[in-house]
Specification:
The protein is α+β, with helices and mostly antiparallel strands. It folds into 3 domains: about 45 residues, Uridine Diphospho-n-acetylenolpyruvylglucosamine Reductase, domain 2; about 120 residues, Uridine Diphospho-n-acetylenolpyruvylglucosamine Reductase, domain 3 (2-Layer Sandwich), CATH 3.30.465.10; about 110 residues, 2-Layer Sandwich (Enolase-like, domain 1), CATH 3.30.390.50. Bound molecules: flavin-adenine dinucleotide. Flavin-adenine dinucleotide binds next to strand 2, helix 7, helix 8 and strand 10.
Length: about 290
Amino acid sequence: MQVPAPFQYERATSVEHALTLLAQYGPESRVVAGGHSLLPMMKLRLAQPEALIDINDLTELASISVDGDHLSIGAMVRHAQLLDSAVAGEHFPILRDAERVIADPVVRNRGTVGGSLCQADPSEDLSAAFAALRAELVIQGPDGRRTVGVREFFSGPYQTVLADGELLVEIRVPIRSHASAYEKVERRAGDWAVVAVGAVLDVAGSTVVEAGIGLAAVGAENFVGVAAEDYLRGGPVTDERFIEAGRIAAEHCNPTADQRGPVDFKRHLTGELTARALRRAAARARGQEA
Ligand SMILES: Cc1cc2nc3c(=O)[nH]c(=O)nc-3n(C[C@H](O)[C@H](O)[C@H](O)COP(=O)(O)OP(=O)(O)OC[C@H]3O[C@@H](n4cnc5c(N)ncnc54)[C@H](O)[C@@H]3O)c2cc1C
């Protein structure tokens, strides 16, 4: 049986308390949210924190609400809660699409939005979805709060710009008149993505004002298809351009061969899923799909 190395355990009662505990235990401490990524790593001894700071009692980080022109999602919101949120689904169908295909109900009932982003797994669906949406992340540390664009939050696979002693507390998504969709291919229901693509389209008349392309599991820097976004911006909303944007996204990503498939297959999927996600987002913009 795999068991973690010994560690201290503390249960935080507030954000301030969690920050105090992180400062007290120092750089070898880690917060635990849903534990779905951290605990398996500890059992495999890939992570050996000396202290675990449990943040599951931080109810102040567990709500979803509209705050001015942003949707505010607390870092401790569970996947299931985001999936069921009418306000999130109404403004950002991409989040509902993505949550439907993240793992299974057991994982979704426990795993958190904040934990998913902080884990920075290159295959994480929400990282790609929030990157397409250009979300902002609110980080709290001993010196107060700072806000970082999600595209600047990731500093490499499994790495973020979070410093020791800091907590991700909130995800803020600008509410705009855009449409969005998420497409994923998995080997079986509930599996991690072979490839997944999120698309956000801000359309005026028949012109794309702004586009967001989020890519998971294909080695895209910061989970973003920048070249495809640049191509789409300012052009007409046509199927030919969606197919070309897919070709560009496929050309500029950097997938690796693994048990989920060879590089060519993943590039092909990237192109196809990008075009599909853009088509669905465009249909939603026209009011032809919920
Ligand atoms: C069987 C299985 C299948 C899965 N399938 C998918 C899938 O298809 N798609 C997908 O996207 N994901 C999938 N996941 C991952 C799932 O989404 C987890 O919820 C996610 O990886 C981590 O969330 P968590 O709350 O469990 O984080 P934890 O495991 O508690 O923490 C992960 C990391 O983030 C840090 N952390 C957590 N919260 C904060 C915070 N607020 N501030 C600072 N640091 C923090 C922790 O210290 C740790 O380093 C799967 C997981 C499992 C177990």
